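call fold(seq) -> C-alpha cells
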Amino acid sequence: MLGGHGRRGGGAVPNRVKNASVAAPDEWTDPDDHVRAPAGEVHAWVPGTNQTVCGLPLARAGLRRFPHITWADVQPATGGYADRVTGLCRRCAAGLGARRDEKPWSRRDPRP
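ret:
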C-alpha cells in the first residue's frame, strides 16, 4: 500500500476525460454533406470503451456511436451537429468538466 491509505497516485482528483465523441439513440444524415449526425439526447463516449462517460452501457441502452463527432460539436450554443439534438446528458457533461453553477441562459439586458 502506498501512503497508508490503499490508494495509488496519492491524489483524490478523478481523471477527467478531455476528448470525447458522441453516442445518441437516433441519427440523421445531413443532406448537404451526407454525414451521419446524432439525434435525441446525446451522451459523451470515449472511443474504445463500451459505455458512456456517465456509465451507461451503449448496447443495452440502444445508443449509436459517432466517433467522427466530438462533444463540442453537439453543444447547442456552438455546435454544428446540434440541429436535432434534444438534450445533453448532465452526468456526461459533469464528467467532462462542466460546472454545476453554469447557467443554461444569459442575461441580455440587465438592469443598471
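The first helix runs from residue 58 to 61.
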